[in-house]
Amino acid sequence: MDTTDSRTFAARLADLLENERHAMADFLVALAEFDGRRGWIELGYSSLYAFLTDRLELSRAAAFFRFKAAELIQRYPEIVEPLRDGRVCITTMASLARVLTPENRAAVLPRFFHLSKQEAKAIAAELLPVANPPRRTVITTVRVASVATVPETTSQTVFLGELNRPEQGSSAGTPTPPDPVVASELAPAMSVEPLTATVRRVHLTVSAAFLEKLEAARLALSHSMPGASEEDVLTAGLDHLLARDAKQKGLVEKPRPAPSSAPHAGPAAAGAAPR
Fold this sequence. Notes:
Helices cover 48% and strands 10% of the residues. It is of the alpha+beta class.
């Protein structure tokens, strides 16, 4: 494919992306109107979310994001244009719904422009932090079957932070579906949930050997840091690793200067007798 063909293809992709955004915005506007008329009741569904999953056969995650978008559009029609031109992504709707109010709409909505889902969660946690997030560790054993032909294996799942999020009610008068957990056969090793502007909840899947090393490190710190938490132990380890890395880079990038030798005495100075 030469340069001309690539440019033509890129222009076509840009047009298709624009059409996709417009089509999604049109769908969400129609969905908001359908919800406002309670059309799902006449069709025998218990909620708009049930209509999306059962009638339109959307996944739970896809239905959830569209449910939140339709709910927001009914209250804040100005969201439509940012959705249409791509400034707001549908996957940020749940976070935006947590913090957007009639009073702050002008200031808050632009803060969600061009954000990823995780970035939007961080902004929402900054604007509406979890009150007094508990700092605790919960360790559970989970069964993981990675491949059908491989026997199940056991791993340890560690939760650092709070266990349950406060439930978010729906202002549209219908129950808000649970924030879905998008599962896969091989779950990611770590997930992070913003709780406040500075506090995060970490869900980390580790091996039993990791837990043994963590406990051994805690014991090693018992004299200098009595009662150290998991965060204290891991922070100390990371600080040590980063300090060692910085020292190694410093030795390579800024080698120590060679010790200076005594000034070389010239012929006149060499022949001069001390006074």
